[in-house]
Write a structure and sequence with these properties.
Number of strands: 2
Largest sheet: 2 strands, antiparallel
Structural class: mainly alpha
Number of helices: 3
Radius of gyration: 27 Å
Strand order of the largest sheet: 1-2
Number of domains: 2
Order of helices and strands: HHHEE
Distance between the termini: 47 Å
Length: 112
Amino acid sequence: MWKEFKKVIGRGNVLDLAVAVVIGAAFTKIVASLAEAKSTGIPVIAYGQFLNDVINFLIIASVVFLLVRQANRFKEKPEVVAPVTRACPYCLSMVPLQATRCAFCTRELKAA
């Protein structure tokens, strides 16, 4: 059950959605503090509250970044697949590694 849960979480979709919700909620506070100052009709912006919300957002964003970085360690890394083609040095078309002649420009190629 734990492996299944880790597999679902590790896919990235769930983690991306969680990060988006948390960052969105933190950013909403910044926008709300500016909108609240505008809606009161007072020509003064509450810089203290705005600065507090920005610092709060930066703290939340850095913690989320550290959590995502740790979560990425658990993801399985894709296997590196050996290339099966190479670029022709004359016409830059992709030809198989084993080819001795380019199919596009018909020039002879050196063995790979």
